[in-house]
Design brief:
It contains eight helices and 13 strands. With 335 residues, the protein is of the alpha/beta class.
């Protein structure tokens, strides 16, 4: 796992059992672990195997994004990505402090993979290829839940610089699922599923591998609910992946989630903006004209976020943060 970094944002202290497990295993596998704190984080945090950044430490970072990100928002994780990139990351694995890595989590990763490729299938509930349970990922457009599952074809080689691993026990589902359906859930082992052009399924920030080519797409928006920031990021990333000839890969579980305490009704409230606009966002992004090629990723991101602002999904202030992110990446690239 050379040049691989793990990035987490957390408000827990150094005694948090999952953070301790991740840090210990990161040491064993020689993987740097970056933890980004927030306003509720402890003033002191010392845990062998991780580099912790408090709000004070974040304010001293040499990134133009540092003083623009809102406090108390998951998007502060953006600074963790920049730190990993500054330190030479070739691969960034992001997860959360309630995901316990399985042994397979530490396996070497490759941008090239074998997978069932799906194209031109619109909204596609990938979870259903890994279980017969009626389950869907957080961010999936509710009006498409009863659509028939597209048939999968033969295994083929794909290039996937963004790879989503599933989570057993308490997977990333929305508040409606948690309020109405039973948990835990354990997925079955299955072949990889790759989503290509005009195929859409949300992916999250809880167990996701990013290769260097896709690092610009890591950007988490700030002017939206924290329950939507990684989901809407995934929508933009998928749309731009089409212009690069990339697929989004979904693979078997490599973590087991022991979910932190949540108020499900608060989660539901924070997800309402997604329930009523996720399909609108997909249709908006699908119909945008973008330029093909990796050299156009930055401009395509600005184009996508401009459109999301125009349809009222994001505040106009988002563009300032996005441009700061892109400027920081350019500065790091030119060092």
């Amino acid at each position: 796992m050379n040049n691989t970094f793990i990035v987490i944002t957390s408000i827990a202290d150094e005694h948090h059992p999952v953070l301790k497990k991740i840090a210990a295993r990161a040491i064993n596998h020689r993987v740097p672990l970056i933890i980004i704190g927030d306003k509720s984080s402890p003033k002191e945090f010392i845990l062998e195997g991780c580099d912790f950044y408090s709000l004070d430490a974040q304010a001293r970072l040499p990134f133009s994004l540092s003083d623009k990100l809102p406090v108390g928002h998951y998007s502060r994780k953006n600074l963790g990505y920049l730190l990993a990139i500054e330190r030479g990351a070739e691969i960034i694995i992001e997860t959360d402090d309630d995901n316990i890595p399985l042994a397979s989590f530490w396996d070497d990763r490759s941008i090239e993979a074998e997978a069932h490729l799906l194209e031109n299938t619109g909204w596609t509930n990938v979870y259903r290829y890994f279980t017969d349970i009626n389950i869907w990922p957080r961010g999936f457009a509710l009006e498409h839940l009863h659509a028939p599952m597209p048939e999968i074809g033969k295994i083929t080689s794909v290039k996937s610089p963004i790879q989503q691993g599933l989570a057993d026990e308490n997977p990333d589902v929305d508040a409606i699922y948690r309020l109405t359906m039973p948990l835990p859930v354990y997925f079955e082992m299955s072949q990889n599923i790759a989503l290509g052009i005009n195929t859409f399924c949300p992916f999250n920030s809880q167990n996701t591998t990013w290769f260097k080519e896709a690092f610009p797409l890591l950007y988490l928006p700030s002017y939206c609910s924290f329950r939507m920031t990684d989901i809407w990021r995934s929508f933009v990333a998928q749309r731009i992946a089409w212009t690069c000839g990339w697929t989004i890969l979904f693979h078997n579980c490599t973590v087991r989630q022991e979910r932190n305490i949540h108020n499900l009704m608060n989660d539901f409230k924070d997800e309402i903006s997604g329930y009523i606009t996720n399909d609108k966002i997909f249709n908006c992004l699908k119909n945008i004209t973008l330029k093909d090629g990796v050299n156009h990723i930055s401009n395509n991101m600005i184009r996508c976020y401009d459109e999301l602002i125009k349809i009222g999904v994001l505040d106009s202030c988002e563009i300032e943060l996005l441009k700061a992110w892109l400027d920081d990446l350019k500065t790091l690239e030119n060092r």
